[in-house]
């Protein structure tokens, strides 16, 4: 554009140009509702003080608007789920003229455990306000528990309370929690007679009550492990009945374990009646139609005593309910109050095994454990250990969660005894075993001077005995494998007759014969004679040769005999 002589543009004055520029800047920077108003629309502000409240499956969205009187302003809301980023129209909250709206989970795709977002805006004709967006939230975490539905049935001196979980049977909010509700039932017949009962079952029988009396009930639900109570139910009242021809119901049911059986007992005052007992798993009790699931207890049908026994093997591990009623001809009583029974509460706990071992002069080590690998398999027991000196009756009780531990501060060289039993603790019950066998052990010697001297003395005596035994063994080996031999005959002449008797020969006759030969033969003549004849040389040389290292008394005796015979013949020839 070209400026004219007056400084304008295309004939427009300078002031008019400046006004147009300012107007354009204001329109660009203005919020949407200003733009709408500038375009000919109505000035609308978004809703404020927006909040959402949830009870069971019902959502209520509330807000405050700022529209003036006489204006036709409505409000609409959208929602966005975790699965998609698209905004969708919220059913029940479109073009609402009031400042609140309700919508249900059944009409949406909302998952109660996913984050969702809500937004709302004002509308008037073709004009809309900006969106007011709420922070994301998880419905299940924000929801309140609504009141349970309660229905009462009157019996003879009893009331049956039937409870429907909050939200009804089709509730999506509590679909995963229906079995986790517990209920507080408040019962009263007057302001001064109020009782509270707690149950996890949707059908609960309260007895015994006064006949022909009005009782009122209200119930509150609560989720286990959560602190959120429900809204209290509306008050319900009913009158109990009385039937003079009906037998009274048994009371005070008890179940206990004895040896290999369970014993069911109850109280009853009338005579000449029979009893029958039934059982039901608590799993079925939490369902609406559980009455048909009750089953008779074997060995407890048509019994006349106020008790009956049945094998432990009849029931596996779990929770069960028992009930009993009386019969006499065509007359029957109502069922007794149901008794819950946990089989593990009566489980037989075997006594543990205990091992005791001395560690030093002042400590003993204790090992405690079950008799089998299956013992206490589900729970870790605590052990109660009783300790005492063998010569004393003073006992000390120790409680340990460990199965292997040390008992300190004991006396040296003292016999201690222990016995142990297992203690099993659970959330519902406690049980304990009998004491196991008693075991005893002596502590080791201490470090006193007397004990040290005793130990040194024992060591010295032990070493001395070992040396003596070694010396005796050496002599024994030498005697067996290296015996003393007789000396050679060449040195026999230097041994006295008495020594020869004591060492070499065993008989005096042989000694005399050998000495006679040596003393009565001329050595020179004998040598000459044996050289001429050649006889007896070998025998003589055998006796006069140098030491060969082998000696034998038998050889000497034989040679001597032969020499005597030969010399006797030669001597005769020489004398002739």
Please explain how this structure is put together.
This protein has 576 residues and is of the alpha+beta class. The chain folds into five domains: 95 residues, Immunoglobulins (Immunoglobulin-like, Sandwich), CATH 2.60.40; 91 residues, Sandwich (Immunoglobulin-like); 96 residues, Immunoglobulin-like; 90 residues, Immunoglobulin-like (Sandwich); 87 residues, no CATH class. Strands 3, 4, 6, 7 and 8 form a five-stranded antiparallel β-sheet that branches. Strands 18, 19, 21, 22 and 23 form a five-stranded antiparallel β-sheet that branches. Strands 26, 27, 29, 30 and 31 form a five-stranded antiparallel β-sheet that branches. β29 and β30 form a beta hairpin. The longest helix has 33 residues. The N terminus and C terminus are likely disordered.
Features:
576 residues; alpha+beta; Immunoglobulin-like; 5 domains; 5-stranded antiparallel sheet; 10 helices; 33% strand; flat; disordered N terminus
Q: How many helix segments?
A: 10
Oligomer: single chain
Rounded to an integer in angstroms, the radius of gyration calculated over CA atoms is: 58 Å
User: What's the count of strands?
Assistant: 31
**Weakly predicted, low-confidence segments:** 1-9, 19-42, 503-576
CATH class of the largest domain: Mainly Beta
CATH topology assignment of the largest domain: Immunoglobulin-like
**The CATH fourth-level homologous superfamily of the largest domain:** Immunoglobulins
Helix/strand/pairing category? alpha+beta
The total tally of domains equals 5
Which percent range describes the beta-strand content? 25-35%
Proper CATH architecture of the largest domain: Sandwich
Average the pLDDT over all residues and give the rounded result.
77
């Amino acid at each position: 554009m070209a400026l004219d002589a007056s400084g304008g543009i295309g004939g427009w004055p300078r002031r008019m140009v400046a006004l147009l520029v300012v107007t354009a800047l204001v329109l660009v920077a203005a919020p949407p509702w200003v733009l709408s108003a500038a375009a000919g629309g109505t000035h609308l502000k978004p809703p404020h003080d927006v909040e959402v409240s949830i009870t069971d499956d019902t959502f209520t969205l509330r807000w405050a608007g700022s529209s003036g009187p006489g204006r036709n302003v409505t409000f609409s809301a959208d929602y966005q789920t975790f699965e998609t980023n698209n905004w969708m129209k919220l059913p029940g909250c479109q073009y609402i003229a009031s400042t609140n709206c309700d919508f249900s989970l059944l009409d949406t795709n909302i998952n109660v455990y996913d984050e969702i977002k809500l937004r709302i805006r004002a509308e008037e004709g073709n004009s809309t306000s900006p969106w007011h967006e709420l922070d994301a939230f998880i419905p299940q975490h924000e929801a309140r528990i609504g009141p349970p539905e309660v229905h009462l049935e009157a019996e003879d001196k009893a009331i049956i309370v039937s409870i429907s979980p909050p939200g009804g049977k089709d509730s999506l909010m509590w679909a995963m929690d229906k079995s986790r509700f517990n209920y507080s039932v408040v019962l009263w017949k007057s302001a001064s007679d109020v009782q509270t009962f707690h149950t996890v079952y949707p059908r609960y029988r309260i007895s015994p009550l006064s006949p022909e009396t009005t009782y009122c009930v209200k119930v509150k639900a609560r989720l286990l492990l959560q602190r959120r109570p429900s809204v209290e139910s509306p008050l319900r009242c009913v009158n109990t009945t009385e039937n003079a021809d009906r037998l009274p119901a048994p009371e005070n049911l008890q179940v206990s374990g004895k040896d290999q059986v369970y014993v069911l007992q109850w109280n009853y005052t009338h005579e000449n009646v029979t009893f029958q007992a039934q059982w039901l798993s608590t799993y079925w009790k939490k369902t609406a139609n559980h009455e048909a699931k009750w089953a008779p207890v074997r060995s407890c049908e048509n019994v006349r005593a106020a008790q009956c026994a049945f094998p432990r093997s009849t029931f596996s591990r779990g929770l069960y309910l028992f009930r009993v009623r009386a019969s006499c001809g065509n007359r029957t009583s109502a069922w007794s109050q149901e008794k819950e029974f946990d089989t593990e509460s009566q489980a037989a706990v075997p006594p543990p095994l205990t091992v005791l071992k001395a560690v030093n002069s002042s400590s003993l080590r204790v090992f405690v454990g079950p008799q089998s690998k299956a013992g206490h398999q589900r729970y870790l027991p605590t052990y109660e250990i009783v300790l005492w000196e063998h010569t004393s009756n003073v006992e000390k009780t120790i409680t340990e969660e460990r199965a292997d531990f040390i008992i300190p501060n004991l006396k040296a060289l003292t016999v201690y005894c222990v016995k142990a039993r297992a203690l099993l603790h659970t959330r519902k019950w406690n049980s304990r075993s009998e004491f196991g066998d008693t075991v005893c052990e002596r502590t080791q010697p201490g470090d006193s001077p007397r004990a040290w001297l005793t130990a040194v003395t024992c060591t010295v005596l032990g070493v001395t005995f070992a040396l003596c035994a070694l010396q005796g063994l050496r002599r024994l080996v030498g005697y067996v494998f290296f015996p003393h031999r007789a000396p050679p005959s060449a040195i026999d002449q230097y041994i006295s007759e008495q020594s020869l008797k004591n060492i070499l020969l065993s008989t005096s006759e042989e000694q005399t014969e050998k000495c006679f030969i040596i003393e009565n033969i001329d050595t020179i003549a004998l040598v000459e004679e044996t050289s001429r004849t050649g006889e007896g040389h070998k025998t003589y040389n055998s006796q006069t040769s140098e030491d060969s290292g082998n000696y034998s008394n038998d050889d000497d005796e034989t040679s001597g005999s032969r020499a005597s015979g030969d010399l006797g013949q030669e001597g005769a020839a020489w004398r002739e």
